[in-house]
Amino acid sequence: MPFARATRYRQRVMTHRLSRSVTSALLAAAFVGSCLWGTSPRAAAAASDGLERTSNPAGGSIVAGTLGGSSLADATAALLRRVHAELGSRPSVVQVAQNQRDHSVALLFTAAHGRTPFTGVAIVTAKPGSEITGAALYDTSVRFHSTVNGLVQQLGAMTTAGKPGRGARPVQISPAQPLEPHGFADGTGSIGAPAGWNVAVAGGGSALAIAPGNAAQVSYNMHFGGIDPGNPRGAMFLRTASPMARAGFHGIVSPYISDPVKAWVAIVSGMAQQRGMTPQIHIESQSDVGSGAANFTGTLGSGPKMIHFIAYAFVLPPNPIGMWTLSDTHVYVSNAELARQGETANAVLDSVRINFGAVAAQQNAIRKMFQAKFDAEIAADRQADQNRYDNTQHFLAQDRAAQEGMHRSAVAMENYSLDRAVVVDTRTGDHATVGSNFADTLVQGNPNFQKVPASGLLRGVDY
Fold first, then answer.
1. Which of 98, 204, 179 has its CA nearest to residue 351?
2. What is the per-residue pLDDT for 72?
3. Residue 183 shares a structural domain with residue 131
4. Where in the sequence is the domain holding 443, given as residue range(s)?
């Protein structure tokens, strides 16, 4: 990719690296909202009357239970007030993910206890006809990245510990499976995946890991795109590209879509349709995290095969040939495997480590390779132009010479038919056209005059 685009790409990837812990925390919150609050309100009340605080032996605290208020907003405010009371400072909401279908909201917040910064996730669920339940999981900002998974597991145990109400089914969230490291062959990073998972992509700063049976999928910094058929050079590519070039293009034919969520939906839908599928994509929540970038959650499909996803995407604008690029990081977990694979998928995403220096060096090498190729093509084009010019000039010179010879021959024939001749004064070089008899008299025994042959006739003088 051009250098300026590569620079923007590295800046976006660095931003995503810094926010990956945020994505992991919201992923955990999404799984909590989908799995933990499936118990009846009676069971939730039995587990904790009001809000109760519990400490996690591995680090961090949980405040969970039922909440007062008649709306999701009121209950969320009440939960944040309790966090304020626990830590002694008002929490600041960093990011919000709302699931309108499940009537729940997940918040990422920061606060301080004295001079110690804290980070946490708050989840509130307010389904119609049920008591409003909520939980806040928090720890010091230094440790939260490593303790959030344990906090989620402990909250799951707390939620299912009480006796379920009629028709309720306890949900047991499985801990993350042990991960095996997989280094990228090109040295640009690594990813951890459980035994049996297929690490399908591992290179160029990107990764893709797939669970057995496609029960879960973790994608990091994968690239897709669109090509604008309205761009003349893009249209030329679509008409003339070889099968190999077309196979190397991972994307759709579409004008540039600047909204990252809409672009992601268009690309996922378009690539699925290329495989004969028509996916149902439902976006449940989204939050912009910068120009051309967003975090969002939702579902793919419906019924038993429905997939839950959380994604981060950003879009780069079109290049001169009308190609635009979307970078996609996502976690897919099937609805049936959400409790069993959710924590594992979160751990796989969190295990990604990128060597950004190696990625930059690789991008620079690719840029130099393409630049050298472009320079060679430009030099070849210039040489071809010069060769065409030289050949044209040579042809024109030959044509002029041929025309000149024909003209001289025609004048010589005319002089002959009119009984004329051209003589030259050898002393001055002056030419004159005279009658043939007079010319014979001038040159006979007089070295100062000579007859001029047809090849010696002068343009503008003799004809």
1. 179
2. 86
3. no
4. 374-456
Residues 5 and 145 in one domain: yes
* pLDDT category of residue 1 using cuts at 50, 70 and 90: very low
Using the structure block, give the residue that is written with the tokens 């440790």.
143
Q: Within this chain, do residues 313 and 271 fall inside the same structural domain, yes or no?
A: yes
0.85 exceeded by the pTM?
A: no
SS3 call for 462:
coil
Do 258 and 329 lie in one domain? The reply is: yes
Closest C-alpha among 204, 201, 115, 144 to residue 350 = 144
C-beta separation of 93 from 104 below 8 A = no
Specify burial of residue 227 (Cβ count, 10 A radius: 0-12, 13-18, 19+). Answer: buried
From 80, 129, 77, select the one nearest 103 (Cα to Cα).
129
Q: Which residue has the higher pLDDT, 20 or 204?
A: 204
Rounded distance, CA 370 to CA 321, Å? 15
| Overall number of domains in the chain | 3
From the list 76, 154, 132, 131, the residue with the least C-alpha distance to 109 is: 76
Looking at the structure, do residues 391 and 276 belong to the same domain, yes or no? no
Burial classification of residue 160, based on how many CB atoms lie within 10 Å of its CB (0-12 exposed, 13-18 middle, 19 or more buried) = buried
> How many other C-beta atoms lie within 10 A of the C-beta of residue 120?
28
pLDDT tens digits along 29-56:
555 554 444 433 333 333 334 788 888 8
Q: How far apart are CA 36 and CA 137, in angstroms?
A: 14
What is d(CA 221, CA 214) in angstroms, rounded to the nearest whole number?
19
238: left (phi over 0), alpha (psi -120 to 50) or beta: alpha
pLDDT-wise least confident of 36-45, 125-134, 148-157: 36-45
HSE-CB of 165 using CA atoms within 13 angstroms: 12
> Are residue 212 and residue 232 in the same domain, yes or no?
yes
Residue entry with tokens 């994968």: 222
Length of the chain equals 463
Q: What is the pLDDT of residues 382-397, one digit of tens each?
A: 999 999 999 999 999 9
Asked whether residue 461 is domain-assigned, the answer is no
> Among 173, 188, 220, which residue terminates a domain?
173
Co-location of 298 and 214 in the same domain: yes
| Interval 115-126 mean pLDDT | 91
* pLDDT, tens digit (0-9, with 9 covering 90-100), for 329-349: 999 999 888 888 888 998 999
Q: What is the pLDDT of residue 317?
A: 92
Q: What does the pLDDT average to over 436-462?
A: 91
